[in-house]
Amino acid sequence: MTTNTYRSEAGFTLNPDENALSTIIDLCTANPDLVLFHRPSKFDWVEVTASEFLAEVRALAKGLIANGIEAGDRVVLHSNTRYEWTLADLAIWSVGAATVPVYPSSSAHQIQWIIEDSGAKLAFTESRDNTAAMEHLLVGEGGQPRLSGSPSQLQRIVEFNSGGLDELKAEGADVSQELVDARVAGITHDTLASIVYTSGTTGRPKGVNLTHLNWYHQATALGANPIGAVAKPGRHVVTFLPLAHVLQRAVSLALTMHGATQSHWGDTGTLTVELQRAKPHMVLGVPRVFEKVRGAAYNKAADGSGIGKKVFLAAERAAIAYSRALDTPQGPGPLLKAQVKVFDKLVYSKVKAAIGGRAEYGITGGSAMSAELSHFFRGMGIPIYEGYGLTETTAAACVNNSEHCRIGTVGRPVNGYAARISADGEIEISGDGVFTSYWNNPEATENAVTDGWFNTGDLGEIDDDGFVRITGRKKDLIVTAGGKNVSPGPLEEIIRQDPLVSNALVVGDGKPFVGLLVTLDAEELKRWKAENNVPESKSLRQLAHDAELRAAVQDAVNVANATVSRAEAIKKFRILERDLSEKDDEMTPTMKVKRNVVAKRFAREIEELYKR
């Protein structure tokens, strides 16, 4: 039994003889002088035309063939986001092989599992560190891996930073272009294009088989809307999220298919440098990126003076009110319009300048974005369109856009996708962008797909207009000792919006009440110390039980508690002595908390919440 099914009609037709790769080849052939990329070279940036890009892809494809890579083989790609990532990806596709992306932050254990499970024969890496993490898996003389007992089939590692691409091109110099063309012509919609391993908030990552149809459908759907406004020649976008993540890769693919210009930037710590240089027309980021943009603007204003802080907060309130008014029949009133106009000069223009000054809108996914933050950005003139999807849906299955947007939802199903709600409240997705199987895991496939519908594991609802709202994660549901079901996500999302809070984890499964682990933002804590005359040297361990600090955190908890019943409300919280991090395997690359890891690592702190 299902309820609230919404199906989006495809606004495009997919040619069975075409795919994303062939579309890009055709574009490059027809428009050889079109600038597709900016790439760093000798402390400067140079333009890469379509003909230059295609020539490099073909040269690398010849090198792969010279190294014995056959159609259907798997090739690992382990690197930060950079121009060479895209080159290698399309070269792999050009020989009929499948790309196996590995996150730059993946642990040695994860890398080994992916290489062994996928049966990859060759790997592209960025640096010596990336190479060292898999060298022990190389097959030596006699066909045996250096690591005893490993089933690895890895035969070659090509490292970007050590001139590996030039070596590969030289090795393929005698391979004919006709052979590459034949490999490309042999690709069908059913050909395996990638095995993308889930980021794994729980358990061992599963390999998701994504075909050329999946990628072609997703990139075509995105190119229609929401990125149609920037997926065209003359428009520029900075690609900075990990390309191992399906959303960034799908958007990058769509941009290339439609002739937009991209520059790659792998260091998020210095992202504003590239944003201000490239002046992108659109920004794709996970919610944490936009939280940091807002936080940086707030910190700059607050550090300047007490008045600056008050002006920023007033501007934020005005932007939120303006955005909310846009959703009413009467719209914003004259006074609100005047306030926004004044604050645009004082505050909003500076936020816009920090991301280049040309951004018309943003797109976000990967985790929930708070409605307040969405209203803030839309109110100041840069709407952020929130979407929803998983690796198994080849990125965005639903997304808000310029024509249909409802803040607080993840939008309506993208062209060619359908969404429905099962009897127990689970969101299910179907469409040509949905995968059909996991790699070497028929049992997991059987559990995940029913009659073409993918069981997402997320709980939600669909309104009468087809907008999908996420209400929680099925596996994350907390059942208290009193039998109350609590969805932690919405509570955590609200608490994280407090400037003092960095991360929040709701706990209480099988416990008498709902509890909370909370970490604090370092910059905001520093400011709090100054405002409350607390010595800078005083550590969080010393402050964890400070009455005034706890009162400040309690304010954030109270806001969240006001949205739920008393039985679902957070009764006690514990301030942790440090923040959570991806480096410590506590967060995924898309900045989602790994609940099982954090719960195990801070088991003592959780138990102390329930001591009388």
UniProtKB/TrEMBL annotation:
Presence of keyword Lipid metabolism? yes
Family matches, as InterPro entries: AMP-binding_CS, AMP-dep_synth/lig_dom, ANL_N_sf
Does this entry carry the keyword Ligase?
yes
Query: Which SUPFAM superfamilies does this UniProt record tie to the protein?
Result: Acetyl-CoA synthetase-like
Spell out the Pfam families in the cross-references.
Answer: AMP-binding, AMP-binding_C_3
Coiled coil: which residue ranges? Answer: none
Task: Please list the residue ranges annotated as the AMP-dependent synthetase/ligase domain.
Answer: 31-439
Q: Which UniProt keywords apply?
A: Fatty acid metabolism, Ligase, Lipid metabolism
Domain of life according to the entry: Bacteria
GO molecular function terms attached to this record? long-chain fatty acid-CoA ligase activity
Membership in a protein family: Belongs to the ATP-dependent AMP-binding enzyme family.
Protein name as annotated = Acyl-CoA synthetase
Species: Corynebacterium qintianiae
- Sequence intervals crossing the membrane: none
